[in-house]
Design brief:
- This protein has 2 domains: 173 residues, NAD(P)-binding Rossmann-like Domain (Rossmann fold), CATH 3.40.50; 128 residues, N-(1-d-carboxylethyl)-l-norvaline Dehydrogenase, domain 2 (Orthogonal Bundle), CATH 1.10.1040.10.
- Helix content is 44%, strand content 18%.
- It has 11 helices and 12 strands.
- Helix 3 packs parallel to helix 4, helix 6 crosses helix 8 and helix 6 packs parallel to helix 9.
Length: 308
């Protein structure tokens, strides 16, 4: 298959490397010409437990010569609309648009740009850490789920086979909204806390204060989900968050990666989304509001930090 991976971040590098390694045609869309040039010269390097492997992947900034079968969105939530409008002229009507992004709102934004029938939703529990331009570490394995499910010869089924062939544990599901909310609850419990404490995922549950805040933030998010009529895909949300912490114990969460790199985070699409949804239903979300506000302070004052 022909994949256009939108965004050369940690997840973009992970999927681009793995898909290209097993023979798929892969192109990466980037908005930074200098980074695209670096990737074109050096390829995508992925560190795994078994070692390091580098593959050549073409990176582009102004267009592509072959229209893709799938446009895989791996950009940050705050970049979704801009990236979608940039690549919209590059793709054909038959191209499937798949988001594996964090947070709420990405699916709807992509549907506004590409049309509802072309956009597929999904989540992935794969963990990856960006080490440099075109260089990522595979930090944790997990299942990838996309949907809605279709026929054996449909685009979703073809993507699932491609992902499985590249070594990703992948399945389909019909209700994408449930998947997105299921991952959102996990991110609500982990991402902002890592950004504030600078702890890895596996260290959070062992930190008494962090674990307490995590539990309260998740409880608020679950109340909001229930008000929206969302049936979460696991019976015990807080235990699910703890399971993810254990499964990705060595992972540096994406929001912490952004803070360390002094970049804008996805806080408004994660904890901030819980605050906004809570307001709609009259549900107080003071813990998520506090976490959102603290991360916004951090990302808004990178140039004012006190040196050690």
């Amino acid at each position: 298959m022909n994949f256009l991976v939108v965004g050369p971040g940690a997840m973009g590098c992970l999927f681009a490397n793995r898909l290209k390694k097993v023979g798929h045609h892969v192109t990466i869309a980037d908005y930074k010409p200098e980074r695209a040039d670096f990737i074109n010269r050096n390829g995508i390097c992925l560190e795994e437990e078994t070692g390091e492997e580098r593959v050549h992947v073409q990176a582009v900034t102004g267009g592509i010569t072959e229209e893709p079968d799938v446009a895989l969105f791996c950009v940050k939530a705050n970049q979704t609309r801009e990236a979608a409008e940039e690549i919209a002229p590059w793709v054909r009507l038959e191209t499937s648009v798949l988001t594996l992004q964090n947070g709420l709102g990405n699916l709807e934004l992509l549907e506004e740009v590409f049309g509802k029938g072309r956009v597929l939703g999904g989540v992935t529990a794969e963990g990856a850490t960006l080490l440099g331009p075109g260089h990522a570490r595979h930090a944790g394995r997990g299942q990838t789920v996309i949907g809605p499910a279709d026929s054996e010869d449909g685009p979703v089924a073809k993507i699932v086979r491609a992902f499985e062939g590249a070594g990703f544990n992948t399945r389909t599901a019909d209700n994408v909204e449930i998947l997105i909310w299921g991952k959102l609850i996990v991110n609500v419990g982990i991402n902002a806390l890592t950004a504030i404490t600078r702890l890895k995922n596996g260290q959070l549950p062992a930190a008494k204060g962090a674990k307490t805040v995590m539990k309260m933030a998740v409880r608020e998010a679950v109340r909001v989900a229930e008000a929206r009529g969302i049936s979460l895909p696991y019976p015990d949300p807080f235990e699910r968050v703890l399971e993810v912490c254990r499964a990705t114990s060595g992972n540096v969460a994406s929001m912490l990666q952004d803070v360390l790199g002094e970049r804008i985070t996805e806080i408004q699409a994660i904890n901030g989304a819980i605050v906004r949804e809570g307001l709609k239903f009259g549900i107080p979300t003071p813990v998520n509001l506090t976490l959102t506000s603290l991360v916004e302070v951090i990302q808004g004052t990178y140039d004012q930090r006190v040196a050690r």
